[in-house]
């Protein structure tokens, strides 16, 4: 019985060791994947910085060609407020609210451009009861930054009693909601020539303009370090467990 018990304990220790090695390899692979995403993001940031330094493009006169990222633009036209998109579940300096993205029709052109007009406070981070509270003039001129539209083919739209809201921007899904072509980029408004103080909440002009996403490395490096630490801990546990001397309590009677 002693020999059988020793073999059983040895097999269990080997199996546990293999499991910890496998867990360490998986965590290490995830860490390497996060480092790859970090390198990809840094390359995109490099291209975006090069775009940002180029001369401003007037979208009223022509469209953007090629890669789009942080290109300074000016756009003038007629906002289609009846078909604008509400992005739910947003925070600005700790305040819940929504973001409003409005199709802009440009005179003489079929293709519209989605314009991110900014943030509107909302207690439940859903649509406000009256869109007129953050509506702007029917003819507008905006300065802003153009960014490529995300395209995962699902912006997670949600129908509510006050209208449809979206979890995120999505080119294919939003094109399906509009009766005209839409450019593959959108514009985050940074300034405009028609700003008024008619629509305010607690003295703040609505919508509140937001900053473009920062050109940083994001969370990928910290995620990679976490995965490497978890993987290292799993491997260390496996080696320590295997090297631990067997005691009588490890062997069944």
Question: How would you portray this structure in words?
Answer:
With 253 residues, the protein is an alpha+beta fold. The chain folds into two domains: 78 residues; 151 residues. The chain contains three helices and eleven strands. The strands form three sheets. A five-stranded mixed beta barrel has the order 2-4-5-9-6. Strand 7 and strand 8 form a beta hairpin. The chain is elongated. 26% of the residues are buried. About 3% of the residues have low confidence.
Q: How is the topology of this model organized?
A:
Layout: H1 2-52, E1 57-58, E2 69-79, E3 85-92, E4 95-105, E5 112-121, E6 140-148, E7 158-160, E8 163-165, H2 171-175, E9 182-192, E10 200-201, E11 204-205, H3 220-243
Parallel strand pairs: 1-2, 5-9
Antiparallel strand pairs: 2-4, 2-6, 3-4, 4-5, 6-9, 7-8, 10-11
Helix pairs in contact: 1-3
**DSSP summary: helix tally:** 3
Query: What is the total domain count?
Result: 2
Total number of strands: 11
What level of helicity do the residues show?
25-40%
Q: How do the strands line up in the largest sheet?
A: 2-4-5-9-6
User: What is the average of the pLDDT values?
Assistant: 81
SSE arrangement, N to C? HEEEEEEEEHEEEH
Give the overall shape, derived from the CA principal axes.
elongated
Which oligomeric state applies?
Answer: single chain
Structural class: alpha+beta
Distance between the termini: 8 Å
Return Rg in Å.
Answer: 27 Å
Show unreliable segments.
196-203
């Amino acid at each position: 019985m002693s020999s059988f018990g020793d073999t059983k304990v040895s097999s269990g220790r080997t199996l546990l060791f293999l499991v910890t090695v496998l867990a360490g390899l998986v965590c290490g692979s995830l860490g390497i994947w996060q480092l790859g995403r970090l390198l990809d993001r840094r390359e995109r940031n490099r291209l975006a910085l090069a775009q940002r330094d180029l001369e401003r493009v007037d979208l009223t006169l022509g469209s953007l060609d090629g890669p789009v990222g942080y290109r300074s633009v000016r756009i003038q036209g007629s906002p289609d407020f009846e078909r604008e998109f509400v992005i739910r579940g947003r925070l600005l300096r700790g305040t819940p609210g929504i973001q409003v993205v409005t199709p802009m029709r440009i005179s003489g052109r079929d293709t519209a451009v989605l314009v991110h007009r900014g943030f509107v406070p909302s207690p439940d981070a859903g649509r406000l009861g009256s869109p007129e509270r953050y509506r702007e003039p029917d003819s507008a001129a905006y300065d802003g930054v153009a960014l490529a539209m995300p395209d995962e083919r699902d912006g997670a739209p949600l129908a509510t009693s006050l209208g449809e809201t979206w979890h995120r921007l999505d080119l294919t899904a939003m094109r399906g909601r509009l009766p005209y072509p839409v450019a593959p980029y959108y514009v985050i408004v940074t300034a405009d020539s028609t700003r008024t103080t008619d629509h305010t909440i607690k003295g703040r002009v609505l919508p509140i303009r937001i900053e473009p996403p920062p050109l940083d490395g994001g969370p990928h490096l910290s995620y990679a370090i976490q995965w490497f630490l978890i993987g290292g801990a799993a491997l260390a546990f496996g080696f320590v467990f295997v090297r631990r001397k067997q005691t009588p309590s490890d062997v069944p009677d």
